[in-house]
């Protein structure tokens, strides 16, 4: 069921993106020299759809990286809680073993003989 919903959402987005890419095939000049627009020191001529795809890729990469760094405190808290749970689990196992051992060996005190 999830797969169907995923395709119902993904397919139209891919279709629209494909139409936009085909419609934006003309060449644009990318200049990285803000001071000399007529004769830039470095410029690229790329199709507009490549520029759009690069911008989307860079945005996804930066957004994912910033989100990952922003979740640092939650990952650290999860790590701490996981280690506590592991330690408590080990302690419970040790106590269970002690209880089994003490139940197996009766602890009867000798009464004084008069």
From TrEMBL:
Keyword Chaperone: no
Annotated Lipopolysaccharide assembly protein A domain residues: 43-85
UniProtKB keywords: Cell membrane, Membrane, Transmembrane, Transmembrane helix
An annotated GO cellular component: plasma membrane
Biased segments, Basic and acidic residues type: 78-100
InterPro entries: LapA_dom
Transmembrane segments: 49-69
Keyword Secreted: no
Pfam family, one: LapA_dom
Biased composition regions of type Polar residues, renumbered to the chain: 102-114
Region (Disordered): 76-114
Name assigned to this protein: Lipopolysaccharide assembly protein A domain-containing protein
Organism of this sequence: OCS116 cluster bacterium
Lineage: Bacteria, Pseudomonadati, Pseudomonadota, Alphaproteobacteria, OCS116 cluster
């Amino acid at each position: 069921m999830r797969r169907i919903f995923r395709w119902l959402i993904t397919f139209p987005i891919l279709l629209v993106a494909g139409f936009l890419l085909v419609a934006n095939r003309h060449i644009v000049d990318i200049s990285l020299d803000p001071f000399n627009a007529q004769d830039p020191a470095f410029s690229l001529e790329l199709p507009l759809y490549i520029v759009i795809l690069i911008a989307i890729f860079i945005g996804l990469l930066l957004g994912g990286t910033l989100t990952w760094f922003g979740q640092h405190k939650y990952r650290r808290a999860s790590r701490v809680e996981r280690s506590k749970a592991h330690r408590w689990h080990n302690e419970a196992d040790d106590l269970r073993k002690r209880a089994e051992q003490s139940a197996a060996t009766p602890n009867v005190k000798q009464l004084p003989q008069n």
